[in-house]
Each structure stands twice: as structure tokens, then as C-alpha cells.
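WARN no homologs supplied; continuing
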Amino acid sequence: MIDRIYECSVVPELWPSVLDDLATLTEARGGLLFSARKALYWTASGAVRDVFDEYVADGWFTRCSRRVCLMGQSQPSFFVEQDFWSEDELDADPIYRDFFRPRGLGWSAGTGLKIPTGDNIVFSVEREFGRGPIEQTYVDRLNELRPHLSRSAMVSARLELQRVQGAAEALTALRLPALVADSAGRVIEANALIETLPERIRFGADNRLVLPDKRANDQWLAALAAIETPGSEACSIPLRDAHGRASMVLHVMPIKRSAHDIFGQSYALLMITPVAGDRAPSAEIMQSLFDLTPQEARVAGGLATGRTLEEIAAAGDVAMTTVRSQLRRVLEKTGCTRQAEVVALLSSVAIGPG
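OK structure emitted
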């Protein structure tokens, strides 16, 4: 399933099949993916395609309260109707009363993704009204897949859900510095934007990618080694400047299945998000850049604003051992070795032009 999700990143016509599987996983009728930046792009399972053709064509998308609620959440999770509304409120909501329920739908699990590039993405599965609300067990299953859906959809969104004909076209269409590499880190192809980063991205012997930031370079090699490990996730790597400040974030994604038709024998896609600024990042940006859970983001955000671990534990009403465990995960995900480095790193991150 995870391999198929990553396959969709550059072969977007496969998304409906994966959305069908998400629906089957949750006993729903179908699933959908919306991506919006300057324009709206979307795709859906065949079973709900006609419904959402109407949803978009008749203007329901622009007035949908559910989409607004999903995009307003800072927690990286799927949500169901009961997280936002009472039964009476649902009965009175026009989107449910006048659109979903007359078409046999009315229960969903959805998530909003705020991508650092400025793309806003919504995934949801849509269940028959007569079946009843989507249970927490199914929400938990969707949340296990959410990091993979997020990474793959980020690429699809940059490609405007259009299939590209080859590696050169794909890398150019991403409109971000990007390259593809083999399992040894040898660069197979890169776009022109990579050439604007000579102090951050270098090519060594045998055209291997070399990052002057040693810690980031070690993480890059570890990410390549982990791609074939069952259950391993795509990862994000902060790239620091000479002063230890994050200057960009590298997103490493595996190339799977028929995505090789686009990228040949390449093994991984590396896409780079520039970051800059002098303010602490929002929780949403921290989570998206570094794959932090809500609890980890709370710890990182507390540190970035000057709180001690004791204060963070007290504010969250959790044990110090729990906060220390969460801090260890933050250190691992951001490539830091000390608490002070987390503060310096996160305080330097604010999303740059995308």
C-alpha cells in the first residue's frame, strides 16, 4: 500500500485506485484528493466521482464548512464530523442536509495538509450515511498512512495532478530544486534550480551527491539505506548554513513501482524547500518540515519560545519522562544532538518563497 502511494506521486492517474483502497480500508464508498494553490486540482474514486463533479461544478466546494474546519487544524490527523459538530448542527448544515445526504453520503474522515510550498491539500474518505460515522479504529489506520500520503501528494500537487513524460519534465515541473539518485547516492538527473545552490549541494566522485553539512549528509545516506526497510518513511533533512541555521529542508522520497517509467532506474527523489526568516515557525510548518507528531511539535514549539522542559510538561499535564521521550524524537527527526540546537534550528525556520 505504501509503495503504491509513492507510485502515485508522479503517476497521478493511479490515485483513484489508491483512494478506492483507502475507502475499502474504512468501509467507505470512495475517497478523494483536492489540491489548491492558485488553481484547484482534484481526483476521486470512481464510485464518488460523479458526486464530486457536482460538488465542484455547482459551487459547493467554495462554501464547504468541512474543508474550512480541516484546513484550520494544526494537529496532523484525520478528523470525523463529531470532532467539529453536534448532531443538530450537522442536521442544519447545508452541505450535509442539501448535498451529501440526498446523495446517500454524510459521514467522512478527512485531513488537511498545509504543505511548506504553499499548496493546500485535502484527503477524505466518504461513507454511506446509513452505515454510520467512521470509527476511531479506522481513523487510526488512516493516520498511520498520513505521512506517506502527505509526501506523495506534495509531489502530485506540484505537478498539478498531471502525468509527466520523463525525469527531466518531472523535475522541471516541480518548480523547486530537485534531483533523482540511485541507491548509492549517484545523481542520475537534476533540474536547473539545483545549479543555483553550489554552496549547499555539491557533486563528488562518480557524481555522488555531497552535502557540505556533514550531519545532513549522514542523514541523506541513512535515508537511502532505509528506503527498502519495510515500514520506513520518507524523511525530511534540515540543511544548515555555516552559522548552524536552517537554510533549506531536503525531502527524500522513494521511487516505487511504475514511477520508474518516469525516473528510470533511479532510487530516490530529493526535493528541496528553501526556508528563511527571523521568526519561530508555526506548529503546522514544523510538523510538515520535520514530520513531527502533535506532541513532538508542542515540545519543539515550547523550546523555540523559551520554555523549559518542566514548563512544557506542566502546561501539557504530562510526565517529565514523556516530554523527555518526545524531545528525543524531535532530536532524531531534526538531526540535532542537543536541546540548544533544536532551539537554534527551529527559531531560524520560516517558510521562504515557494
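Residues 136-158 form the longest helix (23 residues).
OK
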